[in-house]
Amino acid sequence: MLTHLLTYRLSSQAIGAITCHYSAVACANGADVIFVLDASGSVGKRNFQKATRFAAELVELLIVGGASNSRRISRVGLITFADSASVQFQLNSYDNKLDVLQALNVRHMGGATNTHLAIR
Q1: How many whole angstroms separate alpha carbon 77 and alpha carbon 23?
Q2: Quick check: pTM over 0.70?
């Protein structure tokens, strides 16, 4: 299975310019998708919520499942970082889309931006 690392860092300058059209995305194969979200004070609570909504919209397009022989099944994980990095959930934590979407509802941490802790 192809593994993707999606780092989505929002800044107050860039957030207004982000426009995505997901309807054209079609994957013949599933993927391991790990969202790494900046939850530091520099992003702010409002922009962090936009980032989690972005992640949820992307998850809506996936066929989420646990261990399976199907090549179309995707697994999702989430890491947040600020003063420290936190694995919110791993690729094998959830085996259905609804549970992943609920787990994406994480709180904004605030604090310093220590990106290096999230990518170790």
Answers
A1: 22
A2: yes
